[in-house]
Amino acid sequence: MNRMYIRTTLYKAVISATVLLLTLSSQAAEMDHSNHASHGTNADSETSANNTMDHSAHQKHSMAAESNDPHAHHKAMMSNSSKDKILRSSHDYKAPSLTMLNQKGESIEVQQLLNSDKPMMVNFIFTTCPTICPVLSSTFSVVNRKLAEEKDLTMISISIDPEEDTPEALQRYAAKFEARDNWTFITGAIEDSITLQKAFNIYRGSKMNHEPVTYLRANASKPWTRLEGFPSSEQLIGEYHHMQMGH
Ligand SMILES: [Cu+2]
């Protein structure tokens, strides 16, 4: 769908239908993902069901709705341009054999790391991203803390901008998101990052085109679950428990 068309249409609706707006404004606590438009956030996500969001990174938008609020039209647009949904699919991605680096500067055999017989959650990020990655990383941070008792779980964030994301940069990023020991950040050669992105069908030619995707699997004998969109921490934890029950 054409986002600009939606926004334009909504704006007209705002002008002509105040009553409608007041109704919509009650949904204003939903997130504004309009700044994610350039990342193609919603392009493929129209078909899925789940619409629960982690709002932790967007508290500033959680204003109470008021009847005479002059920003009601803005809120209405936010709530309606942000029907972010999670598109869930299953894939047999093959981790390539690569030697990369973790945030401590240690060599990591990527294939060995990813082909673990233990549960795993993976995403692709870059530390200077102003939009998608802070949301994904905030969610990972909450999950990392809430699943602290799950000793087998490994969480992995792979840089798609390894030239900027040195091990030191990743270590600072990890500290910022209070990453526990079981959350590893991966960088290395740009070609290797691209190879890895292609293996997980997330390479889009430029870091500026990247999409929010989270991958999970119970162990190396299972397919990867691919979640496109912005799952909340509760959703990710739900996926984790679901997967641990053998589904
Ligand atoms: Cu990003």
From TrEMBL:
Pfam families: SCO1-SenC. The keyword DNA damage does not apply. The keyword Signal applies. It comes from the Bacteria. Residues 37-54 have a biased composition (Polar residues). Residues 32-84 are annotated as: Disordered. This is Thioredoxin domain-containing protein. It comes from Amphritea japonica ATCC BAA-1530.
